[in-house]
Amino acid sequence: MAKKYSAAVDQGTTSTRFMIFDHAGQVAGVDQMEHEQIYPQAGWVEHDPMEIWARTQDVIKGGLKKSGVKADEIASIGVTNQRETTIVWNPKTGEPYYNAIVWQCTRTKDICDNLAKDGGQDRFRPKVGLPLATYFSGPKIKWILDNVDGVRAAAMKGEAIFGNIDTWEIWWLTGGPKGGAHVTDVSNASRTMLMNLETLDWDQEILDILGIPRKMLPAVRPSGDPDVWGYTPADGPFGAKIPVCGDLGDQQGALVGQTCFSPGEAKNTYGTGCFMLLNTGTKPVPSKSGLLTTLGYKFGSAPAVYCLEGSIAITGALVQWLRDNLQFFKKSSEVEALANTVEDNGGIYFVPAFSGLFAPYWKSDARGVIVGMTRYVNKGHIARAALEATAYQTREVLDAMNKDSGVALEALKVDGGMVFNETLMQFQSDILGVPVIRPTVAETTALGAAYAAGLAVGFWKNTDELRENWGVDKTWNPKMDAKTRKKLHDGWLKAVTRTFDWV
């Protein structure tokens, strides 16, 4: 049967989605399911890996059924994932030794602090582009090895293997205990704090310092790999043999989906957190402003492309918090209407440092604050301040990028769930002072993974074909004057300082 589609599993922090795209990059099918967020104690965040794999199978079957697409019309499968979330499991049985430790989890603070005693927070940065922070996978692997009975011994015997969620999904998609491929791509490997940016392989010195056996780790492969990793088994959720050959961390997936293939092109994804990536070309650019140097993507034998990244921990998650913890509204989408019941933020700022501050501060001891409260303030002001927090945090990351790269951004491509919030997007353009552009396909994360896999098998010939698929849905232009912009931004910077050193 003719191959008409490329598909992607998009395994995110709060849900798993399966998406099917046609040759024009348009959505041909989709299904999505949420999974449980597990909070064993303050600052700890976990997921059940088996629940995630069960949801993955459900959404694949659901997406095929709803769309009417037949599995043998699909040319290739890519995976995109919540990065840094860490699983260690038994390769013989597929059983995890412990729940997945999620990227937001701060339990590894003591490990990071101890590592920083020799060489400071930037001890490994020259090699890996990352500061010592609870965010990354390496310290999470160490925590599991040090704290879960029997895992270190199992790892030494080859009976405990590690993967971020991409590796877990690919392993199961290609057969699991029956010969599943144990691989990751350069973009996900670059988020572990264990991969050398120059060699694109695991760094033995860092593995020795952390006490992580190399045999636990997956093979590091290109993001779109003509050397196919494996095929979906006939008795799996697809019911057909399809090559699995694409893998990108979610933010790099969005970079590819937004076709940011030239140095100086940037995108910002508004999800649970917020992530801005700037393509810096085929050489890593060290950051002096608190950003991460990370891999963008690597297609086949072409040189790897690097990025500067600014990571913000809490954006969409703040809206969920207003919904679930304070019960301000029933659905997250209702935040905009509530924010629009007031003219402005009433003089308050909401800094959501719930699990510390990420870029450009990297302070794990910060905690969230609302400042400027008076009797005048109501729910509408808090909702508005919550939306504005996303835009202010993005501005701080953008300022750092301009400083590091020497390239002033002229427009920002945006994607993710929050880009349909008109109030937020207009304020984002106002506070940045540049146009904000939403593409026709806003779910660019899954699209990027489908592109990576499709390029690997020749479904798309080259990146020029992908650029032709990209189209503008809506542009917001700044309406705020420079004086107001500066006054509001200065207030935000002052508010941020109130979160420091709380713990």
Helix content: 25-40%
Largest sheet descriptor: 7 strands, mixed
> Cα-atom Rg, whole angstroms?
22 Å
Total helices: the number is 16
Beta strand count = 23
- Class by alpha and beta content: alpha+beta
Distance between the termini: 60 Å
Chain oligomer state: single chain
Overall body shape: globular
Average per-residue pLDDT, rounded, comes to 95
**Uncertain residue segments:** none
Main-sheet strand order equals 17-18-16-15-21-22-23
Q: How much strand content do the residues show?
A: 15-25%
List the helices and strands and how they pair.
Blueprint: E1 5-11, E2 15-22, E3 27-34, E4 46-47, H1 49-67, E5 74-81, E6 86-89, E7 100-101, H2 109-116, H3 125-128, H4 137-147, H5 151-156, E8 161-164, H6 165-173, E9 183-185, H7 186-189, E10 195-196, E11 201-202, H8 204-210, E12 219-221, E13 230-231, E14 243-249, H9 250-257, E15 266-270, E16 274-281, E17 292-297, E18 305-312, H10 316-324, H11 335-339, E19 349-351, E20 369-371, H12 379-405, E21 412-415, H13 422-432, E22 436-439, H14 444-456, H15 463-469, E23 472-476, H16 482-497
Parallel strand pairs: 1-5, 5-14, 9-12, 15-21, 21-22
Antiparallel strand pairs: 1-2, 2-3, 4-7, 6-8, 10-11, 13-14, 15-16, 16-18, 17-18, 19-20, 22-23
Helix pairs in contact: 9-14, 10-12, 12-13
Description:
By secondary structure, this protein is α+β, with helices and mostly antiparallel strands. The model has no long low-confidence stretch (mean pLDDT 95). Helix 9 crosses helix 14. The strands form 7 sheets. A 7-stranded mixed β-sheet has the order 17-18-16-15-21-22-23. The chain has a 6-stranded mixed β-sheet with strand order 3-2-1-5-14-13, with helices on both faces. A hairpin with a 3-residue loop joins strand 1 (5-11) and strand 2 (15-22). Helices cover 33% and strands 21% of the residues. It is globular and about 65 Å long. It is built from 16 helices and 23 strands.
